[in-house]
Write a structure and sequence with these properties.
Blueprint: E1 3-11, H1 16-31, E2 36-42, E3 53-61, H2 64-71, E4 79-84, E5 108-118, H3 122-128, E6 136-142, H4 158-169, H5 176-187, H6 190-202, E7 204-208, E8 241-242, E9 252-253, E10 267-271, H7 281-285, E11 291-293, E12 299-301, H8 311-315, E13 322-326, H9 336-342, H10 344-355, H11 370-381
Parallel strand pairs: 1-4, 4-5, 5-6
Antiparallel strand pairs: 1-3, 2-3, 6-7, 8-9, 10-13, 11-12
Helix pairs in contact: 1-4, 1-5, 4-5, 4-6, 5-6, 9-10
The protein binds iron/sulfur cluster (SF4) (2 copies).
Length: 382
Amino acid sequence: MSTGTVEVVYRGVFQKTLAKNICRGVVLAARKEGKIGIAFGRYGDSPERNGIPAKQFAVVSDTEEELQEYLSRYEPSNNDVTIVMDDTLCKGVESWAWAGLQPVTKLLRSGGTLLVTSLQPPAELIGDLHRREEPYSLAILEGAASFSGMFVYKDDHTDVRLLGALARVAPHIVTLHSMTEAIAEVWKTDLKVTSAKQAHDRLATFPVASGQGNGHAATRFDLPGWTKMAEGLVIRGQSVRQAVPGWEGGYVPGRSTTFKKFSTRSMRPVINFDTCKKCRLCWLQCPDTSFDLTPDGLYDANLEACCGCGVCEAVCPVEGCVTMVSEAAFDNNASQWRMWTQDRKAYATWLSKKIAVRPQRAHGFHHRGQYAEELQAVSQRR
Ligand code: SF4
Ligand code: SF4
């Protein structure tokens, strides 16, 4: 008698179909073993939208009574496996009513497995993860974050590869045999079955001991009890402008004090202030009003507000002045302009190192053999 749970953390809209395919695949495979299960989505307490971390779950039980008992809780909270479909989400997710960044391992049970699609080595991924007391395993399925499943992206088998990997780390939930049977039935192609088997065999797993991870604190917050709630619905307005101590001139718009977009983006702009012509185009075109106008007339992308869309890079008329770089390359959200004003030479060195790791612009695979080429390129860089 047992229940197994799988949580899939993904980027809203972009990876929704992949997450659905995975959770559905788990339940269909479990049915082949005579178990009963359910797959369901869960918004991050707001309508799912581009890039926002979101979740889906698959719960599998031996009996219907067990499944019903398990589902009486608000959400699965002791998952056997948490699948992370974009490794930049290892820094945390903000999907609890916008109440701050929370560890991606928050709902993983002690001894469970965090299964991540990534081209990063384990030490770097562990450095992105919040420290926790309970040990767990980190399983890495080598590959870039995929947008396969959106109509403009080709199917790159990421869904079945993760299903094959899942059968390796949690055979008590579904075995590889039942998983491949389900894949053959749903997708009706042997190629998908082969992909799942290869992912199963190639998966690398690393132990993460108690206390490993970064020292970043999860956001703490107090939810208001019913005695503190206002009698009516109150929507507070934003101030038009924030005062910045010590600044004369410049302009910082008012912003939400609780909703920060740290986990929303997979890339961030890096600005070369030495070549900026102060043309203002980035400031005008940014859809999230993310740029702060500094007292010296430069434009600093405020990382509390930036969603990582890349519009500023696209509109900047100066070659190389704005470069979008993978979030995986950063461990804080400090102001780049302040860093530049403190030591311009050191900033230039920092900038050249960061833009060397800008991400690929394509998500998923576009030709046969691209996966092998990507893995080879990564091993040459290491
Ligand atoms: S990437 Fe650039 S344009 Fe997009 S939200 Fe961030 S600062 Fe604004
Ligand atoms: S678009 Fe480029 S050159 Fe123009 S203000 Fe922004 S960073 Fe500077």
